[in-house]
Design brief:
Keywords: Oxidoreductase
Number of domains: 3
Family: Belongs to the Glu/Leu/Phe/Val dehydrogenases family.
GO molecular function: glutamate dehydrogenase (NADP+) activity
Radius of gyration: 21 Å
Distance between the termini: 30 Å
Structural class: alpha/beta
InterPro entries: Aminoacid_DH-like_N_sf, Glu/Leu/Phe/Val/Trp_DH, Glu/Leu/Phe/Val/Trp_DH_C, Glu/Leu/Phe/Val/Trp_DH_dimer, Glu/Leu/Phe/Val_DH_AS, Glu_DH, Glu_Leu_Phe_Val_DH, NAD(P)-bd_dom_sf
CATH architecture of the largest domain: 3-Layer(aba) Sandwich
Bound molecules: 1,4-dihydronicotinamide adenine dinucleotide, 2-oxoglutaric acid
CATH superfamily of the largest domain: NAD(P)-binding Rossmann-like Domain
Number of helices: 17
Largest sheet: 7 strands, mixed
Protein name: Glutamate dehydrogenase
């Protein structure tokens, strides 16, 4: 970056912040991308002529709607929901739905923005979007969740379609919720089409989609290590979360000989020095996917430590995989990771690392696998689910897994081809941002002023 690039970045961010006040997560996500691509913008007249930066940071469309549903005590409840259709330059809008009490427009804009470049990196024809609601699934009965999903789809169905916008799961939206959502879509439209991904295997879902984000993140870590002549076998990892991404990251780490020492939820983390392996991992899956219980139950059952209201980043290990939520690694956590000589941090969650923490990790020589690249396996297999739905066929688990591995390897190569070494490690963040950005920007230039 030249001095002028820094000035241009500063000026651009001031304008973006003015146009989008009180949206700190969105600002953070945009800053991270624009910082990487500023030299490319400086050197590419066509991007400047086409006002690419201004256009690519403005969502195509935001849909806001009320969701009215009835709880088990016959009270009428009201939630707010959104679909942020960020950019469809390279394919139909694609991205998950999040149900969490913290969901707001800021969160969904940052996620939709990131999704645009992540989807571009997969090499599949998918635009970027994100949606969700401030509905809090915690403590709700199955019937309440069903009624909420049906009510949400009653409005959402107007805005989606297999060639328009194809939502999927994210925090608080898994197989159960996608089943309810798809059922309501089918009932209202009288058509069976691939308008959602992450569906159940008996109704159009893809083998391997549930596992894809976690497995993909570990495949990405494997690529990072292989590139420098190392491997996962005999190593240790700290993982946060115990949801969809975390569980299957832990599963793949074990398969590759790497022991996971921690898992967490919003109540704290468990530390199992013998590793979350075998039947202990089966127990954790059952606890979280079926019983929807709290993480301390793992510690109670297996006699290991539970740390209430804490995150696992001070536990010593070779690798860190944040797989819970945004901004879960702060400056003090990054300092602990550097002090413990963590070799690589791979983001399973979206934007789990704060901007300040990122600087400390980079200066500390920790190889950083950014979310856009590292957790793209989930949406990549969603893309494969779309292909299977369109062809009306179902690939085997082995076929899907092979394609997932190829896609993660290809993303790693794209990152290498668009980056350089910083503080002795490959700058995967810059590589991912530039590679993801270029494809979308080229399409936008081709379309002219629209
Ligand atoms: N499900 C998917 O295919 C993909 C998910 N992601 C990202 O991965 C992350 C996790 O998503 P999933 O595993 O799908 O969700 P999930 O709902 O299955 O699990 C989320 C986990 O994070 C924990 N968590 C949530 N909010 C938290 C908070 N404020 N503090 C501490 N812990 C918290 C929950 O307790 C749970 O263990 C999110 O950042 C999501 O955007 C990224 C790519 C694809
Ligand atoms: O599978 C999808 O369409 C979206 C997954 C997702 O929400 C993400 O990559 O963050």
């Amino acid at each position: 970056m030249t001095k002028k690039d820094f000035c241009d970045l500063d000026r651009f961010m001031k304008g973006l912040t003015r146009r989008n006040p009180a949206e700190p997560n969105f600002h953070q996500a945009v800053h991270e991308v624009v910082e990487s691509v500023m030299p490319l913008i400086r050197d590419t007249q066509a991007y400047r002529d086409a006002s690419i930066l201004e256009r690519i940071t403005e969502p195509d469309r935001i849909i806001t709607f009320r969701v009215t549903w009835m709880d088990d005590k016959n009270n009428i409840r009201v939630n707010r929901a959104w679909r942020v259709q960020f950019n469809n330059s390279i394919g139909p809008y694609k991205g998950g739905l999040r149900f969490h009490k913290s969901v707001d427009l800021d969160t969904l804009k940052f996620l939709g923005f990131e999704q645009t470049f992540k989807n571009s990196l997969t090499g599949l024809p998918m635009g970027g979007a994100k949606g969700g609601s401030n509905f809090n699934p915690k403590g709700k009965s199955d019937n309440e969740v069903m009624r909420f999903c049906h009510a949400m789809m009653t409005e959402l169905q107007r805005h989606i379609g297999e060639d328009t916008d194809v939502p999927a799961g994210d925090i608080g939206v898994g197989g159960r919720e996608l089943g309810y959502l798809f059922g309501q879509y089918k009932r209202l439209n009288n058509r069976f089409a691939g308008v959602l991904t992450g569906k159940g295997l008996s109704f159009g879902g893809s083998a391997g989609r549930k596992e894809a984000t976690g497995h993909g993140a570990v495949y990405f870590l494997k690529e990072i290590l292989e590139y420098r002549g190392e491997g996962l076998d005999g190593k240790t990892a700290i993982v946060s979360g115990s949801g969809n991404v975390a569980l299957y990251a832990i599963e793949k780490l074990e398969e590759m000989g790497c022991k996971t020492l921690t898992a967490s939820d919003s109540s704290g983390f468990v530390y199992d020095p013998d590793g979350i392996t075998g039947e202990k991992l089966d127990y954790l899956k059952e606890l979280k996917e079926i019983r929807r219980g709290r993480i301390h139950e793992y510690a109670d059952k297996f006699g290991c430590e539970f740390h209430a209201d804490m995150r696992p980043w001070a536990v010593k290990a070779d690798f860190a995989l944040p797989c819970a939520t945004q901004n879960e690694i702060e400056v003090a956590d990054a300092r602990a990771l550097v002090a413990n000589k963590v070799q690589a941090l791979v983001e399973g969650a979206n934007m789990p690392t704060t901007a300040g923490a990122l600087c400390i990790l980079q200066e500390g020589g920790v190889t950083f696998g950014p979310a856009k690249a590292a957790n793209a396996g989930g949406v990549a297999v969603s893309g494969l689910e779309q292909s299977q739905n369109a062809l009306r066929i179902a690939w085997t688990r082995e076929e899907v897994d092979k394609r997932l591995q190829d896609i993660m390897r290809d993303i790693h190569t794209k990152c290498l081809n668009h980056s350089q070494e910083v503080h002795g490690t490959v700058d995967y963040l810059k590589g991912a941002n530039i590679a993801g950005f270029k494809k979308v920007a080229e399409a936008m230039v081709a379309y002219g002023a629209i």
